[in-house]
Amino acid sequence: MKVLGIESSCDETGVAVYDTATPGAGGLRAHAVYSQIALHAEYGGVVPELASRDHVRKLLPLVRQTLAEAGLRIDEIDGVAYTAGPGLVGALLVGAGVARALAWALDLPAVGVHHMEGHLLAPLMEDDAPEPPFVALLVSGGHTQLVAVDGIGRYRLLGETLDDAAGEAFDKTAKLMGLPYPGGPQLAAMAGQGVPGRFKFARPMTDRPGLDFSFSGLKTQVLLAWRGSDQSEQTRADIARGFEDAVVDTLAIKCERALEAAGSDVIVVSGGVGANKRLRAKLQDMAARRGGRACFPRPSLCTDNGAMIAFAGALRLQAGQHDDAAVHVVPRWDMASLPPVAVGR
Fold first, then answer.
1. Binding site residues for substrate, as ranges?
2. Distance CA 192, CA 238 (A)
3. Which CATH number fits domain 2-121+301-337: 3.40.718.10, 3.40.1190.20, 3.90.420.10, 3.30.420.40?
4. Helical H runs in 111-232?
5. CA 291 vs CA 20, 128, 288: distances in Å
6. What CATH architecture applies to the domain 131-296?
7. Which residues form a coiled coil (predicted)?
8. How is the chain split into domains, by residue range?
9. How far apart are CA 247 and CA 204, in angstroms?
10. Residue 252, CA atoms < 13 Å, CB-side half-sphere
11. What pTM, to 2 d.p., does this model score?
């Protein structure tokens, strides 16, 4: 089954084709992502109306490009998947409208995909993908969650952030130290030049039971350290390293606790922050020490992309799940409400 996937939940336009006839990494026939970073940089953050308009401008050309790279005609697609939520309502409606129109014109089944389920399942596209049950860490600019995955569509929330997501904390911390938008990746790169241990910040909420996160206080600590420093480039790098170490250690501590709580030895990590090299190394070491393993998608599939939507949609379409012809999106959507999928990969 060849599924066209469309992602338009925020400021990336993603399109991909996934072919279930070739499981694993080989099933991804083609994928392309257009980022709106340059468009929103002037405003220091995503402007929803501009995001929607840019999706309108780029989506159909990206569909044509991706089909050409996959070596397929549009009438050779067997199904359509699109991000139905959560996300910016206008941006979601652009992707959903295009997806539903294509499905109607071609008389194909279409299914709306939960954006975070797409992230959660992205590592399962790899050749060494684990089978459920496992624990998933969803860590991005909008979400930081620990989820027990008992099966596809069978999710139990173990813990989540009480305020800022980890990626959001990276971006806000970078901004308060004068780095341009989006500052998170620049802060992580700068941390590589920092001196470990020169600035030591708290590992929030690790001194108490539970699996929830909180990163807002960590931002305040960084702000006070920055304002009281000489604000040189080396100091900026040292503070960035201290901040990154605090976030990575906090995530690793909570992940180990989640594995113990769930009785699992496999941690699956998805979302934009999942591309962080220090986080990957820390979680791999932690999992190996426990006799388990940590699984990640390839870095290009950590941020928002159409591949994860095509793959997640393919699993549901193969199981006979699809939506009616209405253009329907869900800006706020609890992943626990999703129906289970009975079939394997």
1. 138-142, 171, 184, 276
2. 9
3. 3.30.420.40
4. 115-121, 166-176, 183-191, 216-227
5. 31, 17, 5
6. 2-Layer Sandwich (3.30)
7. none
8. 2-121+301-337, 131-296
9. 9
10. 23
11. 0.95
| Residue the block writes with tokens 């870095």 | 299
Other CB atoms within 10 Å distance of the CB of residue 19:
19
Q: Rounded distance, CA 57 to CA 78, Å?
A: 25
CB atoms within 10 A of CB 318: 17
Sign of the dihedral defined by the CA atoms of residues 126, 127, 131, 134, in that order: negative
What confidence tens digit (pLDDT) does each residue in 214-236 have? 999 999 999 999 999 999 999 99
Dump pLDDT digits (tens) for 78-118.
999 999 999 999 999 999 999 999 999 999 999 999 999 99
And the tokens for 284? 């791999």
Kindly report the backbone phi and psi dihedral angles of residue 67, in degrees, each rounded to the nearest multiple of 5, phi listed first: -60, -40
Q: What angle in degrees, to the nearest 10, is found between the helix axes of 183-191 and 166-176?
A: 80
Distances (CA, A) of 152 to 11, 147, 264, 288, 336: 27, 12, 16, 25, 11
Sign of CA dihedral 277, 282, 286, 289: positive
Phi/psi at 118 (nearest 5 deg)?
-60, -50
**Residue that the structure tokens 């600019």 belong to:** 141
At 290, list the tokens. 């426990």
Binding site as annotated, residues for Fe cation = 115, 119, 304
Residues annotated in the binding site, as ranges?
115, 119, 138-142, 171, 184, 276, 304
The two tokens of residue 344 are 């394997």
Enter the tokens of residue 31.
Answer: 């994928």
Given a cut of 80, is residue 172 above it in pLDDT? yes
Taking only the tens place, the pLDDT of each residue in 108-167 is: 999 999 999 999 999 999 998 999 999 999 999 889 999 999 999 999 999 999 999 999
